[in-house]
Design brief:
Layout lengths: L25 E3 L9 E11 L6 E11 L3 E3 L1 H9 L8 H16 L3 E11 L2 E10 L5
Antiparallel strand pairs: 1-4, 2-3, 3-5, 5-6
Length: 136
């Protein structure tokens, strides 16, 4: 593989605690002529309630069909960690993740599902989706 990554295998990992899409990295889709789905799941995403400042804990599932570029997993982890000290509602966070990831890798299709751990006895799930009908 000839890709050069800033984060993968770089030794000590540097974490950011404000949302940082610049840490996202991609690589050439090794099978651009084939439609296939890539899914990432993590239960380690947190952000802060913008009103109370209390932490919210999420399970994020990201599924996408690549076009020309694929997401590199360590950079995705670093990006998701960057939400840790950011105050935003779940709806904003899910849409921000989708927007940033679509911008960096230009998938054929992508879905972000954000499941917030129940707080006060109420759980919250936000699903957002991106689809491209015509690709070159």
């Amino acid at each position: 593989m000839t890709e050069e990554f800033r984060h993968l295998g770089s030794g000590k990992t540097e974490y950011h605690y404000t949302v940082n899409p610049d840490c996202l990295e991609t690589f050439d889709n090794p099978h651009p002529g084939r439609e296939y789905t890539v899914t990432f799941t993590t239960g380690e995403v947190t952000s802060l309630c913008p009103i109370t400042g209390q932490p919210d804990f999420y399970t994020i599932t990201l599924s996408y069909i690549p076009h020309r570029r694929c997401l590199e997993s360590k950079s995705l982890k670093l990006y998701l960690v960057s939400f840790r000290q950011s105050g935003m509602f779940a709806e904003t966070m899910a849409n921000r993740i989708l927007d940033d990831l679509v911008k960096v890798c230009g998938p054929r299709w992508m879905k972000v599902e954000s499941v917030m751990n129940p707080r006060g006895g109420i759980g919250l799930t936000v699903r957002v989706e991106h689809k491209v009908d015509d690709l070159e």
